């Protein structure tokens, strides 16, 4: 398992035998708490779309947690209430449905539906670090196959920060393992998004040293993650087997 340790990450990776995995899911559902449903009376279409959640992400995260016997922290509150994968100063922390709420109301939403998830993920990572040299944190997401009229040409995306040595190494190893267990999958790095932009893993990178924290965002095409059961189960199995294989090294 790769680690960023000085100028010799590959050699350090071979020495390390204590690696922990933590999974999180920031867009696992499109639920709106009762006090705020009035804001979404005309928002059902948006809630059910990729703008409201990541279809298939929670089921995938649970499958990976089972395959790797890893802890999972998930939220099922819609990102249209508050975006748990954005920093407090991000302009899209609140959506068009909630942006005009008062400051006090926004603070209540943050206190009940934003901070608890982010604190729980940080706590899980720090707890895992007590018994490990390095923690791999994977934020599990899915992406819409077509955005703004353009079709995305990948099945799986692995997002990372190339400045943190262990992250591209880990993704390279995961891709190699996926090629062995499921050679037909189209896997791309830092696609369909960049892995170093604002997000929960980016926040945690700022708190923890690269030798101990590896933050990866997994993005799976919704045609697979939320598609027919056979395709969904196949991608769950491939990702889980590949991940379990490299963590066992």
Observed structural traits:
249 residues, alpha/beta, Aminopeptidase, 6-stranded mixed sheet, two-stranded antiparallel ribbon, 39% helix, globular, disordered N terminus
> Helicity level, as a percent range?
25-40%
Shape by Cα distribution: globular
Please summarize the sheet with the most strands: 6 strands, mixed
Low-confidence stretches: 1-16
Q: How much strand?
A: 15-25%
Number of discrete domains: 1
Secondary-structure class: alpha/beta
Cα-based radius of gyration, to the nearest Å: 18 Å
CATH architecture verdict: 3-Layer(aba) Sandwich
* Order of helical and strand elements: HEHHEHEEEEHEHEHH
Overall pLDDT:
93
Q: How many runs of DSSP E, i.e. beta strands?
A: 8
H/I helix tally:
8
**Oligomeric description of these chains:** single chain
Note the gap between the termini.
Answer: 6 Å
Query: What is the CATH superfamily label?
Result: Zn-dependent exopeptidases
> How are the strands of the largest sheet arranged?
2-1-3-8-6-7
Supply the CATH class. Alpha Beta
The fold-level CATH name is: Aminopeptidase
